[in-house]
Amino acid sequence: MKGYMTIDNIPVEIHDERNILELIRKIGIELPTFCYYSELSIHGACRMCLVENEKGGLEAACSEPPRVGHKVWTNTARLRKYRKNILELLLSNHNRDCTVCNKSGECRLQDLALKFGIKNIRYLNTAYTPEPDESSASVSIDRSKCILCGDCIRVCNEIQNVGAIDFAFRGSQMKVATAFGVPMASSPCVGCGQCAAVCPTGAISVKNSLEAVWSDLLDKNTDVTVQIAPAVRVAIGKRMGFEEGQNALGLIVAALKRMGFVKVFDTTLGADMTVEEESKEFLKFVEKTHSLPLFTSCCPAWINYAEKRYPELMGNISTCKSPMQMFGALVKQYYKNNGKRHVHVAVMPCTAKKYEAVRPEFTCDGVPIVDHVLSTQELIRMIEQSGYQFNKLEPEAVDNPFGIVTGAGVIFGVSGGVTEAVLRTLTEDSSNATLLQTAMAGERGMEGLKELQVEYKGKTLSIAVVSGLGNVGRLLEDILSGKKVFDFVEVMACPGGCVCGAGQPYVPLSVKEIRGKGLYAIDKLMSYKRSSDNPLIEDIFSGILKGREHELLHVSYDSQEESTE
Amino acid sequence: MENVVNMDFLEEIVSYFKRSPSSIIAMLQEIQEKYRYLPKEIFPFLSKSTGLSEARIYSLATFYENFSLEPKGKNIIKVCDGTACHVRKSLPILERLKAKLKLEPGAVTTKDLAFTVEVVACLGACGLSPVITLNGKAYPAMTPDKATELLESLIEVKGE
Ligand code: SF4
Ligand code: SF4
Ligand code: FES
Fold first, then answer.
1. What are the angstrom distances between the C-alpha of A390 and each of A228, A230, A378, B80?
2. Fewer beta carbons within 10 Å, N or C terminal of chain B?
């Protein structure tokens, strides 16, 4: 402790808070902000976080360090007036079609306008005519709803190291834009959706496929099946009225079945298949001399990033399809001769999966493997639209014949999970002691970069687990310059892995960790911990997939050229 | 469009500034000095060299009035519209120049890239108002007729 400062007449201990805002929030005051995220640099643009000091001066709490003996007030007459005024000014050039906005109900501007009782906007409405950029398969951008907080730009630059967007022009002409204003789809954007996750308004939002899903679902001549990704089950709890991180799979399955999905499956089996294929590939890979590591392939935003930034590394990325695509291919095979139109939906924590699903590489017998991708947030919307009281449903199990999954598959949803799953398969031992040893090897945790060494049949394998594209970029530079050498690198574009995907309800990083723990808790309860112990794997590989493993479970991204547009 | 920009020249610029992202504005100035605008083709190269995103460089290039992303004419005329020049009727001079050069509304450069006409806030020569500059040389106490004469004195306005 370094001393005290006073907030609203309450003495507060200063520890290592970076700014007054953190201290204010620590004592349970939800100071409104638009441009502050603890993970991002401080921009100080929105001025919502103003506090008043002893001399009557105003300070932006996000930009001022805590000082011993300093006194501030967070809710004075003046501050109330200013905050309301800021909101009015923001709304004066804002497209106020709230009812038809993608973010309606989750928009911070809408929320604060309501909380501060903004009833009348005294200024002339100078909103831009909406000209949304819908070119990306993952996100939509609509300038008429932008408040220029810069959150999207900072996340794209600082956390993701992509830099697809930035402010362009200045003064009243200022806007968030790609270089030369090209459509998002032709920009360096990788579709990770992190910008949409932090955008406080509807200016950047995740693409929505709800209507398409409903229309197939309600069509009598179509069988619609669905798969649910591991990370989804631990992220919908809070919004649906129970604890964050709690496993809601049973209730999700029940809700989806009621809606009319003929079969509800678990992507986790796809993850088990990925583990099997990837482990085989890795074992072959380590036999050969290699200067570069084998990179995992399940994260589509990482694939986009590598294609656009490091095309020379494409040859070192595992040829395994992502669990969603492996599982999709399996389901499409299974329903092939069913005589009815079959549509397969995937519920994912991810916005880049929406792009993966429309890539030309992921078709089978001329049709897309996955027809629609819904984000976790869209799933929540769908449940709300159905009117079901979520926690009054009776939990149900996923369907046969793909109903058996393992703990290894479940932990795919958190950074380090793929590595741990592969290690479990490689060790060929399901004893508790070995499992524990594998869990302690260093792959778990929310750090952006984890490096570990594992002994395997007299060899030392060097492994890196990296998440967040900014960390990925830095690691790749070290690998390419020869500064670091690895055999295997697990890459997830979103910091913390899929549990932190942009399709999930937004929560701060500390809460995302709870979701990760939720997945490890599910793993604990699973009878099978290793993917190779899953009895279905043997059945599937020697049955429905026999002779077609390569065609159905692997991919080559050589059609990059046409797919980048 | 490789032929638009000279790669050796770009390489020389970025290595002079040690590829430092904080020198990006100076690099852009050097490049604009040579080409009279910032060709689109320089962006990927500068981005690779400095580590700044193309969007960030575009951000800077559009922030500063002085940078141009459009090719500029061989002859650059700046018409001052600061307060002093404005009250002494700078706008009719501008109108005349635009009419003579057949500039479309909104355009600042003639299609044949012979002339660019810009409006500037204050050239700092209010005593000479209304003032215009042609390729950096100041012409004081202008009138629309004098502007026409000036244009006609330049051989480039053939066919006018
Ligand atoms: S989706 Fe990701 S890469 Fe694309 S602009 Fe947003 S943050 Fe940047
Ligand atoms: S798009 Fe959203 S996050 Fe980006 S500046 Fe505008 S309001 Fe802020
Ligand atoms: S949060 Fe402090 S200025 Fe925006």
1. 17, 19, 15, 68
2. N
